[in-house]
Specification:
single chain, 5 helices, mainly beta, 22 strands
Length: about 375
């Protein structure tokens, strides 16, 4: 397996973006000093090393596979640019099918089905919150409650469907998932405090040249109805009086979800969405003049900000730009659940840097 550690001095620039809606790691590197034609080949795997300024001595190792190489025929076919993705790419490349008509009596746990979906893929189950209850059983007859079967064009969509069904079964909020730096699938329940919440301090720090917060009340919804599998009986209509008093009546588009088969699940779904949408959402953008590692999905407080110290944000995007000698990390955060889970199958990028990045002590986290 190749490494980029001996090929960093000639890097002209790179751009790295990690979004929460996908776990795919893609990378693109341009070289100001071209490499010999044999330096890389497509299909070749790479080790990518990242150094976190907030944790001197700690590194993050990513694995990637080269998928494209740009060469210049006018310059002895030398390599000017490489790009590729990690093995999580196969989750949006390969489909998944589970035939309920042939296995209608089969029961399974959510963990067992995740293992089945991830079979033949180099991705492990890493865990999350809530822990998946192995006493909660599902089956392959999708026509009744807790049924799961069908044909999905991608394994990502199959995993989305499984977590949606699990959340309904246990009465949880929406569950979002991602692939971490170690190629492990992890998940979290939206709208809940979870794990270790990071406190970020932005005042008096030369490494944080920019910090912006946007309060958005353009998409308020304070009156909402939902319809389940039988829209004549499984339905719910709720409103938020306090929000209506402040922002006026703002009716949302009806929720229509045939997978919801009980009144309790429908009530919970409408209540959860109304709670999220009845009040302004906040987004924040923090720029750092070094590489700073944080997982998408991580919850944070901006504790030294006088206006937002008690608002809980979730990291939705991480973008790294520059070259090995001059790194900028831009982190995006949001309180909006729709921003935490964008709907499209966008390829995401993570990182390609090297040990040319110097560790620097900061007071970013407590």
């Amino acid at each position: 397996m190749a490494s980029l550690e001996d090929r960093t001095q000639g890097i002209a620039n790179f751009k790295i973006t990690t979004r929460i809606n996908e776990g795919i790691t893609s990378f693109n590197v341009s070289y100001k000093t071209p490499l010999k034609p044999s330096a890389f080949t497509t299909g070749q795997q790479l080790n990518i090393t990242l150094y976190d300024v907030a944790s001197p001595g700690q590194t993050t190792i990513l694995g990637g596979r080269i998928q494209r190489i740009k060469r210049n025929k006018k310059d002895a076919n030398k390599i000017y640019e490489i790009s590729g993705r990690n093995d999580a790419y196969f989750l949006v490349k390969n489909g998944f099918a589970l035939d309920g008509s042939l296995t209608s009596t089969t029961t399974f746990t959510a963990n067992e089905m995740l293992e089945t979906i991830l079979a033949d893929e180099p991705i492990e189950i890493g865990g999350g919150t809530p822990s998946l209850d192995d006493n909660e059983l599902f089956h392959t007859n999708k026509n009744i409650n807790k049924g799961y079967s069908g044909i999905w064009s991608t394994k990502k969509k199959a995993i989305d469907s499984l977590f949606k069904l699990y959340a309904q079964a246990v009465g949880a909020n929406r569950i979002r998932w991602y692939i971490d730096n170690e190629n492990k699938l992890r998940w979290f329940e939206t709208g809940k405090r979870r794990g270790n919440i990071i406190n970020i301090y932005t005042e008096g720090n030369d490494l944080t040249p920019s910090f912006e917060v946007d309060e958005n009340a353009e998409n308020i919804v304070n009156d909402l109805a939902g319809y389940g599998c039988d829209d004549s009986s499984i339905k719910s209509h709720q409103s938020n009086g306090a929000s209506i008093a402040r922002f006026g009546l703002q009716v949302g588009d009806n929720i229509t979800d045939s997978s919801i088969k009980t009144q309790a699940d429908m009530d919970a779904r409408v209540s959860s969405e109304l709670e999220q949408k009845a009040w302004p959402s906040y987004t924040a953008t923090l720029t750092l003049k070094k590489y700073y590692d944080i997982e998408v999905g991580q919850q944070v407080y901006f504790k030294d900000d006088p206006d937002y110290p008690d608002i809980l944000f979730t990291c939705t995007q991480k973008e790294i730009t520059g070259n090995p000698a001059d790194i900028t990390t831009t982190l995006s955060f949001s309180t909006d659940e729709s921003a935490i889970a964008p709907p499209t199958d966008t390829d995401v990028t993570k990182a390609i840097v090297s040990d040319a990045i110097t560790n620097t002590k900061t007071n970013l986290v407590s």
